[in-house]
Amino acid sequence: MPENNKKMCQLFISKSEGILDEKIKNIKKRLKGKINLDTDFMVFDNPDELDEKEFINFLTIPPFFSDHKVIVIKNIENFPKKIIEILTDRIKNLEKDSSIFYLITATSKKINKKFLDSVKAKGKVKQIFKPKTGSIKKWLKEKQELDGIHITEKAAETLIENVDRDLTVLKREYEKLLLYAQSQDGKKIDIDSVNHLVSRVYNLKIFDLIDSIGEKNKEEALKALKSLLLESDNLIGVVTLTYRMFKTILYIIYGQSQKAHELVSSNINAPDFMVKKIFSKYERFSKNYSEREAIRAMGLLNDADISLRDNVTPSKNIISKLISEICK
After folding, report:
1. Phi, then psi, of 144 in degrees rounded to 5
2. Separation of alpha carbons 304 and 319, rounded Å
3. What are 71's strand-pairing partners?
4. What is the pTM of this model?
5. Distance CA 157, CA 135 (A)
6. What is the pLDDT at residue 246?
7. Number of other residues whose CB lies within 10 A of the CB of residue 2
8. How many Å apart are CA 250 and CA 260, to the nearest integer?
């Protein structure tokens, strides 16, 4: 537990409730085994349902089974004036040997001045402006809360997918969306905004092309190829991955699902849920091709691979012809 009164009272200010909740959660973890969390740790987070008697008792009665007790007050700016006055007085008179630790959060800087002064004098005030988490979903949630914008759930999923779950790329693309959001009513970003402003990373464009071939959608496959060629004309990787897809499709057509699943798993360095997702997609694609068509596609892919390595015909022409032949 804290050894001086500067640490006996801490106020954390952030626009992101997610960040503040994570801060409380981490402090509670550190307290495990040091205090009795059932009797000497209490959270007050709803002023409308506040039991004033319970609140006063927790502040004034010594800890039962611990040397210290912890009171957590979330969103102090929402609490009634009377409660804030009680807290101000107690914090102002906080001593080094106090048995109570005050952990307070606020999502607004509009905090009672006397209360804030008492915390600054006897405790510590920390403002949090940046997400601390390494989780890409948490980072996005916390960052938009901090910046006062709203990205819809579908838009957030698409954004994360478009950057291939790369936090560095996400941070760069987020800045575009933040600027755009400032001009929108309600500062809201929907899926159309993400699709318009955020480009998919190169390796995802490759998968867009392969998936379109799997769907036997010639128009979408050629569109994906055009997008891919804006970044690179080295398309041997496309041929290799498409060949693997058709090999998996053939296993599925032959009723050898176990072999098909093993092939996907061995070629993709990804969690089990992602392997399962890709395998399910290939199962769907297998309904678009007969055995003869799948075998023919693998032959065409072999021919395309040789042509690409000869480096005589432009890769664009080779893949465009390949798509037309497979998807007809």
Report:
1. -70, -30
2. 7
3. 42, 102
4. 0.52
5. 14
6. 96
7. 15
8. 8
Range of the domain at 106: 9-127
User: What is the Cα–Cα distance from 228 to 203, expressed in whole angstroms?
Assistant: 9
Indicate whether 4 pLDDT > 60: no
What is the distance between the alpha carbons of residues 13 and 198, in angstroms, rounded to a whole number?
Answer: 31
pLDDT for position 317:
93
Q: How far apart are CA 39 and CA 194, in angstroms?
A: 48
DSSP 13: E
pLDDT digits (tens, 9 = 90+) for 77-88: 999 999 999 999
How many other β-carbons are positioned within 10 Å of the β-carbon of residue 231? 12
Q: Nearest CA to 71 among 46, 49, 44?
A: 44
Q: What is the CA radius of gyration of the chain?
A: 29
Domain annotation covers residue 59 = yes
Residue 71 lies in a domain: yes
211 is written with which tokens? 């998936």
- Ordered alpha helix ranges (H), 32-151: 52-60, 81-92, 113-122, 136-147
Where are any strands of DSSP class E within the chain?
Answer: 9-13, 41-44, 69-73, 100-106, 124-127, 150-151, 188-189
Rounded mean pLDDT of the chain? 87
Whether 48 and 21 share a structural domain:
yes
- Give tens-digit pLDDT for 69-112: 999 999 999 999 999 999 999 998 887 667 889 999 998 888 99
Q: What is the pLDDT of residues 198-227, one digit of tens each?
A: 877 676 788 889 999 999 999 999 998 988
Q: Which residue has the tokens 């599925």?
A: 252
Which CATH number covers residue 310? Answer: 1.20.272.10
